[in-house]
Amino acid sequence: MKWLLAILTILLVTFQYRLWVGEGSLAEVSRLKRELAEQREKNTVLTRANRQLLREVRSLKEGTDGVEAKARYDLGLIREGETLFIFMQPEEEKAE
What we know:
Elements: H1 2-20, H2 26-62, H3 64-75, H4 91-95
Helix pairs in contact: 2-3
């Protein structure tokens, strides 16, 4: 009977060790859940960025409006006959 109790105690300690410390332990599962949540957040941000880029690519492919808007914004181009106005801040406001 003592041998059976000793064997059962050893088995219990072994299983408890795996539950708290070993592979697949509660601590590891908790860590993996945190990493999964972080990765899902990153994926959401990247998905939004991809959708924005896809809209921009489609706009550039479909017509000249997207190309014109891109040239105006990125390169500062204007059409013939248009007048460009640039508003500057006074020097005293820049210093603040």
